[in-house]
Known about the structure:
The complex is a heterodimer.
Chain A: H1 2-23, E1 46-47, E2 58-59, E3 70-75, H2 80-94, E4 99-105, H3 109-119, E5 125-129, H4 133-137, E6 145-149, E7 155-160, H5 166-184
Parallel strand pairs in A: 3-4, 4-5
Antiparallel strand pairs in A: 1-2, 3-6, 6-7
Chain B: H1 2-12, H2 29-39, H3 58-72, H4 77-88, H5 103-125, H6 133-136, H7 140-156
Amino acid sequence: MKRLFYALPVLLALGLGVLFVWGLNPNRDPNAVPSVLISQQVPEFDLPAVGGMDVPGLAASDLVGSGELTLLNVFASWCVPCRAEHGVLTSFVEKDGLRLVGLNYKDRAESAAAFLDELGNPYARIGHDFSGRTAIEWGVTGVPETFIISPTGVVLYRFAGPIVGATAVDEFNAALDQARARIRQ
Amino acid sequence: MLLRHILVGLLLVATPALAVEPDEVLDDPVLEERARLISAEVRCVVCQNEPIDSSNAGVARDLRLLIRERLLAGDTDREVFDYLVARYGDYVLFRPPLRPETYALWIGPFVILSIGLVGVVALLRRRPGRIQESDVALSAEEEAAFERIAKRKDTAE
């Protein structure tokens, strides 16, 4: 009993040490808010097209029964990281043949159109969410965010932040592989 | 002197920072009060230590407007919170709900406190008892030797 008592400070120090090592992990983001939508059906919404653009609008029905994995990207012309990840998204569409739809968040139609004119348009459909209310339905906390959606309209994965840099791209690709494996089952 | 008094007076009536803008305020004061109380308990998902009541973030304003909309539609406070949690998760509440996943969060501090108290009590109990007379009393020989030394000191002075 006495030995246990003397061992207590050492055990406590070890326990705290493990806790601190876990906390110091550089890959851990304490501000990350996990998405509640994972494994849920996509929320109901119906957005008009961005005025002046040739691309059709986006509704929940476009995401259900599409027959393929869909990426939904929340973006805005005023969002600098969105510019940075644009190339990555384009390569997903062109190289991997993925279907990409966009949610234009709190953006003026002219600005969004100019943004896509300049960088190219990889989006098959774009919903114009001027008020930001649809983004709240999706639990969006900032731009950009990208969701992986199954062919049946189930949200499989949410990536918050720009898919830029080797770590982020690898992480997203791993999630894509997992998603592909899941729908094959 | 007067200036100083005025300055102190102004500082005393300064109110806490509010982010609610005039165009958000509802006409019905009861609903507006409910909206403010609810907003004070909802965490801004961007500036995560602030309630949306005092956050200047765009999302915070959207959520404030959303809450007022839900209240106008007749939701109870509980329903408004559930609406937000359904979209953002428990994290959006400042007061985490008491659920099996959060038992550790709620009960943990009390457990650690009890361990600490047990440790302190055990430590206090182990202290030696009061000093007994028999432990420190001198034996007869030691008493005699002491007398001799004391006398020698007296005569020396």
